[in-house]
Amino acid sequence: MKFTCFHLMPYRPLDLKAASDYRSAWVVLPNSFYDPKKGAAEYDSYLDQLAYAEKLGFDVIGVNEHHQTAYGMMPAPNLIASALIQRTKTIKIAILGRALPIVGNPINIAEEFAMLDVLSKGRIIVGFVRGIGAEYHSTGVNPAFSHERFHEAHDLIVKAWTATGPFEFEGNHFRNRYVNLWPRPYQTPHPPIWIPSMGSRETIEWASAPERKYPFLVTFSSEAAVVRYLNMYRETAQAHGYTASGSQLGWAVPLYVADTDERAREEAKAGIETLFNNFLPMPWEMLLPPGYTSISSLKATMKIRTSLGSRARNQTIDELMANGTAVIGSPKTVLEKIERIRDQTGVENLITMLQFGVMPDALAVRNMELFASEVMPKLR
Amino acid sequence: MTAEIETLNTRGISVRTRCAGSGPPVLFLHGAGGWPAWLPFFERLSQRFALTVPEHPGFGASDDPPCIRDVPDLAMYYLDLLDGAYSSPVHVIGHSLGGWTAAEMAIRNTHRIASLTLIAPAGIRIKGVPPGDNFIWSPEEAIRNRYYDQSFADALLQAPPPDDAQLDIDLQNRVAAVKFGWEPRWFDPALEKWLHRIAVPTHVVWGAEDKILPSAYAALWGERVAGAQISMVAVCGHSPHIEQCDLVTGKILSFLDRVRA
Predict the structure, then answer these.
(1) Which of B167, B177, B183 sits opposite A290 (nearest CB)?
(2) Rounded CA gap, A231 and B212, in Å?
């Protein structure tokens, strides 16, 4: 197994009680709730945690893009990746991911990733996502054209990385007379591309296609959904005529280790419950605006994703542990839960989120240390 | 009288329509909520006119052709429909998205349009006077914000939940509404500057308490479309032809009578 230390960088100083008067911590929560001085301290803490992951022996550190929300403070994740390049030596840095459809010009993304790849001498992994529904509210981009824009932007970026320029790109959404990337990516043919997703048949079909074979990372899901989506990828690959390797399968999960199950539950409780009940919830109208997915996928998601959407405000740590959305416990318990998912799916990329919600620095760091010393070696 | 449901094919695009009545032709273009049931307003119109109420391409069970991506496309489709289905000019009535579509048709070509009736039309934007954000509203808010008289909303909210087939129709309607209305939000920046080209009799009807498209827009339509008649309907929300059916039907019939005189 390979291990990613992933971060959302939530805004922990949020006044949770006052914020709960709003529809969501996304889109409509006034930015007067954000204090730049406290925000600066948050960046310091979180960058320290991610840089520390290299010393602890993780393979990858992961950052993430979200817009106009207290849930995560990386609207420009490449800026954070750039800072991390300076603080680390050998660890891979994954940007999971950039939301392709919501930018005006995908060439900017191709250029920035190429710069990061050269700056880091080939340590970059890129994630391509569509952004979540709320980001179509906050950017104004029409969700009905999200898939079209994603595929076109992807084609443009990959071609910009691999074809000799200048060439002309003639899309329906993006048109460039001259595409001629300076600098080009350090890695050949280009940085690895990962596809984080809440899971949809369209995404899995596309990512697993033989000409791509992009690793698919299922994010924030119950054990049943993780198993279902990862096996859907395997089956789809089989239908494409090849066997997916475990390195094509990824599972992103909030995870907490302490010396006993009781202590882990006690220490993780505030963090995990604020993540799912304060930072993440949004109504369906924000999460899945019409057109963002196909109608069949929308109906399926609403049935499977009972932990998302507007009814999610009162989830307890026990529910989240019971359905496997969060993995929390002693090293032995955590190891067993990960092995159980691995046995059912063959997943070999574990994307651990070891700080979540309001979890303070001291607990987050001890969690990282315990996971790295007590769990990680047994899964290698 | 009941309206017959037919399939109308225009240059390979099939849509559902309800047709009723005889007399001079009237075409009703529905709003973003989707193809309406047979309303009392339609019943009254069909007593004197040959009324056709199509379901827009992209909505419900009508075709969703990839060539129709925005409201100007939809307007071009309806100009094709007028040419294909009618041999004389048609009175076009449009509500909200349908009113926007009718105006886009009329700035392009009025040779098959006898008159325009625009009921709370979308399509133009006064900076600082945004429409309500129907895309962020919950289903209940969306229904409540449609009406001034909340008894209309209560009746809809008490209706049994849709069956699976109707749920598919509802979801398709929401996808179509997003496609046509998300960005720019419920308007076409190129429409207002050409509204002077509408050279057919035009009647703009607005509910004074509209929470979706503020009634302040009625005056701008009046300024831009020469000779437009404005009917402001008191104590009324976004669907005056439903909420104030008798009053609004009377105003629309007398406008059509004057046009025909």
Answers:
(1) B177
(2) 45
- Nearest chain A alpha carbon to B169: A295
pLDDT value of residue A113: 98
The two three-digit tokens of residue A270, written as one number: 């505030």
pLDDT per position as a tens digit, A252-264: 999 999 999 999 9
What residue in B sits closest to A134 (Cα-Cα)? Answer: B136
Task: Assess A309–B contact: CB distance below 8 Å, yes or no.
Answer: no
Place of tokens 């048709």: B105
State the Cα–Cα distance between residues A327 and A335, nearest whole angstrom: 9
To which residue do tokens 């859907």 refer?
A: A232
Q: What is the mean pLDDT of residues B29-58?
A: 97
Cα radius of gyration rounded to whole Å, chain B = 17
What CA–CA distances, in Å, run from A55 to A61, A79, A189, A373, B96?
A: 11, 22, 29, 11, 61
Q: ipTM higher than 0.85?
A: yes
Pair of tokens at residue B8:
């109308």
Interface of B with A in 194-223 (CB under 8 A): none
What span, in angstroms and rounded, lies between the C-alpha atoms of B218 and A37?
47
Q: Environment class of residue A348 by beta-carbon count within 10 Å: exposed (0-12), middle (13-18) or buried (19+)? A: middle
Secondary structure of A8-76 in the HEC alphabet? CCCCCCCCHHHHCCCCCCECCCCHHHCCHHHHHHHHHHHHHHHHHHHHHCCCEEEECCCCCECCCCCCC
- Other residues' Cβ atoms within 10 Å of the Cβ of residue B128: 6
Q: Tokens 């800026």 sit at which residue?
A: A79
Tokens at B198, concatenated: 């509408």
The beta strand positions in chain A, using DSSP E, are: 2-6, 60-63, 92-99, 124-129, 167-170, 175-179, 193-197, 216-219, 249-257, 327-329, 349-353
Q: Answer whether the bond into residue A166 is a cis peptide, omega within 30°.
A: yes
Structure tokens given for B5: 């449901």
This prediction has a pTM of 0.95
φ and ψ of A92, to 5 deg = -75, 150
Contact status of B167 with chain A (Cβ, < 8 Å): yes
Distances, alpha carbon B15 to alpha carbons A318, A320, B46, in Å: 51, 47, 20
